[in-house]
Amino acid sequence: MSSWQTLSRPLRRYPVRPPDSGIARRKSIWERIHLDPWLLGLLLLLMGGGLLVLYSASGQRIDTVIAQAIRFGVAIVVMVVIAQLSPSTFLRWAPFAYGLGLAMLLAVEIAGDVGMGAKRWLEIPGVIRFQPSEMMKLAVPLMVAAYLNRCQLPPRFKHIFVCAVIIGLPVVLTAIQPDLGTSLLVASAAVIVVLLAGLSWRLIGLIGALIAAGLPVLWMNMHNYQRQRVLTFLDPDSDPLGAGWNIIQSTTAIGSGGLWGKGWLEGTQSQLEFLPERHTDFIIAVLGEEFGLVGMLVLLSLYVMIVGRGLWLATSAQDTFGRLFAGSIILTFFIYVFVNVGMVSGILPVVGVPLPLVSYGGTSSVTLLAGFGILMSIHAHRRLLPR
Amino acid sequence: MPKRHDTLKNPEQELRIFRVRALLAVLVVVVLTGLLTGRLAYLQIVQHDLYSTRSEKNRVRVEPLPPNRGLIYDRNGVLLAENRPTYNLTLVRERVDDLDETLALLVELLDLPEDDIEAFNVRSRQRQRPYQPALLMSDLSEDQIARLAVNRHRLPGVEVEAQLLRYYPDAEMMAHSLGYVGRINAEEMQTLDAGRYAGTHFIGKTGIERFYETELHGQAGLRKVETNARGRVLRELGRTDPVPGANLTLTLDKSMQMLAYELLDDRRGSIVAIVPGTGEILAMVSTPGFDSNQFVTGIDVASYRGLQENIDLPLFNRAIRGHYPPGSTIKPFLALAGLVEGVVTPDSTINDPGFYQLPNDSRRYRNWLRWGHGRVDMERSLAVSNNTYYYTLAHDLGIDNLHEQMTNFGFGQRVAHDVQGESTGLMPSRDWKRARFNQPWYPGETLSVGIGQGYWQVTPLQLASATATLANRGHWVKPRLALAIGDEPLALDLPETLPDIQLDNDNWWDRVFSGMEKVLSGREGTARRTGVGLEYRMGGKSGTAQVFSLGQDQRYNAAELEERLRDHALFMAFAPIDDPQIAVSVIVENAGGGSTHAAHLARAMTDAWILRDDAPDAEEVKEALVDDTARVEGN
């Protein structure tokens, strides 16, 4: 391993064309377009299956499915374009992306649009309307990975402190919007970077203890509806027609599906609208009801395979920045899956996390596939080394 | 880029660390995925049955199908109570954007009076599931329906629903006998069988509607429907049809009822007519009447107060709850009691000096004719309504025998089979007086009872029923209002019927009847003016009851007070004597003497029933009365 650190042109550490090596090797078409066929195939399979479930979950409205397919198309284009960029580009952009994101979060705080009781949206009227916190899901781990890339690893206490500041600012800004779910996801994406970088077990234990100690403080500062969610999670039957309704109906949908499910478009919980948010956050309950445990296991396997392939790609990245960022992207992806399925099946409190690439929604698909674009870029822009 | 630390970095070590951490991450992923799989397997395999049931309960709703209430006909098949479609205003709160705004708009559109708005507001906020329609208003007018239809787009969640509602075509004259239905109240809800009454909003409150509630109501059905989360019915999965309530055919004859109502002519009073052989009540009227339709959907406060505070007590069913001293109308029963007890024979006579004196008592109990009727036998005592004869008879019977015999005629007890809310009246006795006043019975009181005064109080229904039994020669048939329930005729012999009254000599009945005939047809008969032109043999007896108390503590003005102190006019009659087809009792409050003011009403009733189309109608009877200037006074 090795020689590229001494290259004279630091900004071109990832040459688009690696220097010829001793062993001649033809590049495949996939390598030329910088995409990973396995990952791409699994993602397409997931999105295709997702559209099938969405058709049922949307109350059999083909226009919803088409809208989602168009978003997928856009997201795939974004992914392919990003995959063409060199990882060094991300490294260079890290401070700017992070700074811009932070600025927009502040702007939201000052002049944001109120939607659903929280300031989350930034709108340039007539042009675009989006959530800066969504962008931070990538920008923050990127920044942390870029920072740690410059440090000697495993990180020491000083580095951890800097990382904590980098993570803390956007997380707090997101949390006070308030959007606790997203802020936790942003935090976990960045924390994963630090963990992958080799945070010592002693520090992990210490931080864990601090978080445990901080929970009561967090509870005191939570909004009423957030507390309600936690309480409802602990006992959904306490408010069956109110906040507990979602969980009762989603577990009922999943449980009534049994092993084989009631059949596509045959789920009564979903089709008769007992299931809330059935085409967004709770879409997996539709799958569970109509395709049963078998369908759920197929979906989970698909996710696990994507995560496995993603981790493999991350491990095979050639430098620390690439590994850390790629690892964070793919593990965050898994966290989304776990939190969503855990929430819908009633083992986690209700937080607004959609099921990746299956739930209806534009912004999250684009962010996710952009992440996979980065993953593929990091993988495809390896220097081929002699064996 | 800022300055680099490459020289300090150890790529080999960093890769090693990453690999270890990535491996740990894989482990975590596997464990968490296992956790999810376990949870899903628990829900979908272990708990599958529980959630299947829950999901079924979610989607399948059982809706009650209320039965149609049975219709009520008179004996000739004339409809007396029907179910008429009406339109109700309902509101589904879930679909209303702004409740206050919607209510304000409704109040404006429907032009509601203040009282209604309040009830309206309360009903709109009653605790109900948000997807179930709440009833805001019943019985919308055509105009209101039209205005709602035009403004439909401004009123999401507001709907006009059709519903069958009880309707009484001849409410005023039928109200007391038929009774009425009304909304089931909270108290009734406690005692009702929830299954039978699922979906039913109305229940019989009084009269026939109440007595035959079970039969008229029927049995609720149900249907299983699939609904979505908002409660909208998507399809029917199965149903059990409701069993409609049985139609009721009454013994009442609408034309007789109408005649009685018109004869009473808005005075306070009552007429009851019974077919002696069968106990069928042909007419049972209490006036003034009231519009029972008002009570079906709930009467408004002002109207109800008006009815309650009306000095004529229109809500009071005089026919079955009015207590009147019977006066001389009970003289035939007294005569029969004397015959049964062997105190007199039809040929026994007294000499009437115009008064009666108890042994060792100087007080004179007077006949209505000051100078007396001279020699009086049983038939003449009835014809001229002699008091002295009955003072003597009552004294000879004694209160104990008198009480026993009058009880056999049904006085002092409920007599009818299916008349809701019937009063017992009062047949005084030694025991009663001891219990009531803690006083012994005085012989003078027996004399008062002997001429139907004193403590004795009868209801018009009791008087008619006793007359029917007399006409039947002592054979009791329980009076009834139902002729047939569905296709099932009511049995002639009903349980708890009183024992028949036996006379030693059957001809004695004819002697009593003869006396009663002479009331109308005899030269001296108290009601001989009424008997003019009779085309059949009719027996009757007049009565005049002294008003001894004002009853309820009510505010009267002086003119009304005077009117209300006048005597009640009573008459009892049956006809034809040879083959009795009708027995009648008539009471007109504060009208004066019974022979003048009640007898012709009884005659009009018997004429109508026996002569049918040839009988004079109510107007002709009234005109005849005005022409009849000759006053025949009698007790």
TrEMBL record, chain A:
One biological process term in Gene Ontology: peptidoglycan biosynthetic process
Q: Where in the cell is it found?
A: Cell inner membrane; Membrane
Q: Which UniProt keywords apply?
A: Cell inner membrane, Cell membrane, Cell shape, Cell wall biogenesis/degradation, Glycosyltransferase, Membrane, Peptidoglycan synthesis, Transferase, Transmembrane, Transmembrane helix
**PROSITE patterns listed in its UniProt record:** FTSW_RODA_SPOVE
Membrane disposition: Multi-pass membrane protein
Task: Indicate whether Metal-binding appears among the record's keywords.
Answer: no
What Enzyme Commission number(s) appear in the record? 2.4.99.28
Decide whether keyword Mitochondrion is in the record: no
Q: What is its main location?
A: membrane
A Gene Ontology MF term for this entry? peptidoglycan glycosyltransferase activity
State the reactions this protein catalyses: [GlcNAc-(1->4)-Mur2Ac(oyl-L-Ala-gamma-D-Glu-L-Lys-D-Ala-D-Ala)](n)-di-trans,octa-cis-undecaprenyl diphosphate + beta-D-GlcNAc-(1->4)-Mur2Ac(oyl-L-Ala-gamma-D-Glu-L-Lys-D-Ala-D-Ala)-di-trans,octa-cis-undecaprenyl diphosphate = [GlcNAc-(1->4)-Mur2Ac(oyl-L-Ala-gamma-D-Glu-L-Lys-D-Ala-D-Ala)](n+1)-di-trans,octa-cis-undecaprenyl diphosphate + di-trans,octa-cis-undecaprenyl diphosphate + H(+)
Which pathway does the database say it acts in? Cell wall biogenesis; peptidoglycan biosynthesis
User: Where, by residue number, does the polypeptide cross the bilayer?
Assistant: 38-57, 69-87, 93-112, 157-176, 182-199, 204-222, 291-312, 324-351, 357-378
Q: Which GO terms describe its cellular component?
A: cell division site; plasma membrane
Q: Which residues form a coiled coil?
A: none
Query: What does the protein in this record do?
Result: Peptidoglycan polymerase that is essential for cell wall elongation.
Which family does the UniProt entry place this protein in?
A: Belongs to the SEDS family. MrdB/RodA subfamily.
For this entry, the protein name equals Peptidoglycan glycosyltransferase MrdB
Automatic annotation (TrEMBL), chain B:
Its GO biological process annotations read: cell wall organization; peptidoglycan biosynthetic process; proteolysis; regulation of cell shape
Q: In which pathway does it act?
A: Cell wall biogenesis; peptidoglycan biosynthesis
The UniProt catalytic activity note for this protein reads: Preferential cleavage: (Ac)2-L-Lys-D-Ala-|-D-Ala. Also transpeptidation of peptidyl-alanyl moieties that are N-acyl substituents of D-alanine
Entry keyword Amino-acid biosynthesis: no
Q: Which residues form the active site?
A: S328
Please explain the role this protein plays, according to its UniProt record.
Catalyzes cross-linking of the peptidoglycan cell wall.
Q: Where is the Penicillin-binding protein transpeptidase domain?
A: 269-604
Q: Name one Pfam family in it.
A: Transpeptidase
**Top-level taxon:** Bacteria
Its recorded name reads Peptidoglycan D,D-transpeptidase MrdA
Q: Which GO terms describe its molecular function?
A: penicillin binding; peptidoglycan L,D-transpeptidase activity; serine-type D-Ala-D-Ala carboxypeptidase activity
UniProt record similarity statement: Belongs to the transpeptidase family. MrdA subfamily.
Locations listed in the record: Cell inner membrane; Cell membrane; Membrane
Which ranges carry the Penicillin-binding protein dimerisation domain?
65-237
Question: Which keywords does this Swiss-Prot/TrEMBL entry list?
Answer: Carboxypeptidase, Cell inner membrane, Cell membrane, Cell shape, Cell wall biogenesis/degradation, Hydrolase, Membrane, Peptidoglycan synthesis, Protease, Transmembrane, Transmembrane helix
**Bilayer topology annotation:** Single-pass membrane protein
The organism encoding this protein is Halomonas hydrothermalis
- What InterPro entries does the annotation carry? Beta-lactam/transpept, Beta-lactam/transpept-like, PBP_dimer, PBP_dimer_sf, PCN-bd_Tpept, Penicillin-binding_protein_2
